[in-house]
Amino acid sequence: MSGGPLEGVLVADFSRVLAGPLCTMTLADLGATVVKVERPGSGDDTRSWGPPWSEKSTTYFESVNRSKLGVTLDLADEGDRALARELARRADVLVENFRTGSLERMGLGYERVSADNPGIVYCSITGFGSGAGADLPGYDFVVQAAGGLMSITGEADGAPTKVGVALVDVLTGKDAAIGVLAALADRARTGRGCRVEVNLLSSLLGSLVNQAQGFLETGRPPGRMGNRHPSIAPYETLRCRDGLLAVACGNDGQFARLAAVLGAPELAEDERFATNAARVGHREELVAALEERLASDGCAAWQERLTGAGVPAGKVGTLADGFALAERLGLAPTVVPESGGTPTVRHPVTYSTDLVREAQPPPELGEHDTAVRDWLSDPEAPPLPTP
After folding, report:
1. pLDDT tens string for the chain (387 positions)?
2. Out of 133, 154, 183, 204, which could bridge 147 as a Cys pair, Cβ 3.0 to 4.6 Å?
3. Is residue 362 packed enough to be buried (19+ CB in 10 Å), middle (13-18) or exposed (0-12)?
4. Which of 92, 169, 186, 242 is catalytic?
């Protein structure tokens, strides 16, 4: 197979934890040579974020660091800083999430790096931007709280709740990858480098779509509705005999089919339920009527009948169920590194041509120290090979 569309692109990865490493792993999946720079001794913070532990590190670290070269550099040491600056000078892309001003003091800020390397695409990831919010620590959980995501997550009569994964970090990492790819495309057209800035708060607000636009239109912040949708009904979890079934009726035709499957076609003619607006306005009566009928059978049986009738429905399952479903549907949700080891979740995009390269295991701490240091010390060295 080819090396991918980013073959020959060198990425200096000065990021850690989640958003930055996810961005750079995406670039590695697409063929870039990614050199992950870590602190000697301890490395990326997530190497100690267990359980669960993997054979060589933690599952957290391994989830976002495959197919990278790993080098340890002590940025407090002048010799290692010089190597880091040389890496930045040779790189096509630099990704960092240091506290604002930290890399500038080390001679690795955008102005210094771009002066030596005008074509660099320099991506900075922060919590709240590099201006007035520069001193605010950027942690996903804090941004979920301060940015409003927790205020719309959870039961209406319960406490605000975080999402069950560091979703804002994930969204920011994907935004960062989009930004880097856009800047690389612009560089190919114009020859110019670019500074790309993303921050957790902006990525969160950009992801709130209809909830955010509803607030901007009305001035009223939305509240928590549990599993219900603010504008559609039924679009929520409904109780069956043995558990919860997610039912999503996006239009009146789907609701009519739902009513027919439940043996109550008259519900679709009831003026309280005939239109989506009416159903939203009579949600409590609607749910009572639906759950009365759903109580006669289990989730799996109802899911099969409803899906067969073209009504979106799915039993509320576990992560194991999610992977099993993807396998049954032929979506191949995981990849195993070429050299063996623990599977990781595959690059989520499928292409009609061969754009994703074979996965390699995440690097052990300092695994490629000798190769990378020797390369940085030799101005005549050929390009670094991908892992």
Report:
1. 468 999 999 999 999 999 999 999 999 999 999 999 999 999 999 999 999 999 889 999 999 999 999 999 999 999 999 999 999 999 999 999 999 999 999 999 999 999 999 999 999 999 999 999 999 989 999 999 999 999 999 999 999 999 999 999 999 999 999 999 999 999 999 999 999 999 999 999 999 999 999 999 999 999 999 999 999 999 999 999 999 999 999 999 999 999 999 999 999 999 999 999 999 999 999 999 999 999 999 999 999 999 999 999 999 999 999 999 999 999 999 999 877 788 999 999 999 999 999 999 999 999 999 999 999 999 889 999 888
2. 204
3. buried
4. 169
Q: Is residue 19 left, alpha or beta, with left meaning phi > 0 and alpha meaning psi from -120 to 50?
A: alpha
Other C-beta atoms closer than 10 Å to the C-beta of 59 total 15
Q: In what order do the strands lie in the sheet with 235-239?
A: 235-239, 244-248, 313-315
- How many angstroms separate the CA atoms of 12 and 372, rounded? 11
Query: Of 229, 274, 230, which Cα lies nearest the Cα of 252?
Result: 274
Q: Could you give the CA distance from residue 359 to residue 9 in angstroms, rounded to a whole number?
A: 17
Amino acid code (one letter) for 329:
L
Indicate the helix (H) or strand (E) that contains 244.
Answer: strand 244-248
Q: Burial, 125: exposed, middle or buried (Cβ in 10 Å; 0-12, 13-18, 19+)?
A: buried
User: Do residues 153 and 224 lie in contact, with contact meaning Cβ atoms separated by under 8 Å?
Assistant: yes
Give burial (CB, 10 Å; 0-12/13-18/19+) of 26.
buried
**Cα gap 216→275, rounded to integer Å:** 26
Using the CB atoms, write b or e for 85-119: b if 16+ within 10 Å. bbbbbbbbbbbbbbebeebeebbbbbebbbeebee
Give 104's contacts (C-beta < 8 A, 6+ positions apart). Answer: 111, 112
Please give the single-letter amino acid code of residue 385: P
Q: Which two tokens stand for residue 383?
A: 């390009």
Question: For every residue of 303-362, which 3-state class applies, written as one string?
Answer: HHHHHHCCCCEEECCCHHHHHHHHHHCCCCCEECCCCCCCCEECCCCCCCCCCCCCCCCC
Distances (CA, A) of 120 to 188, 192, 207, 277: 12, 8, 28, 52
**CA nearest to 148, candidates 246, 227, 242, 216:** 216
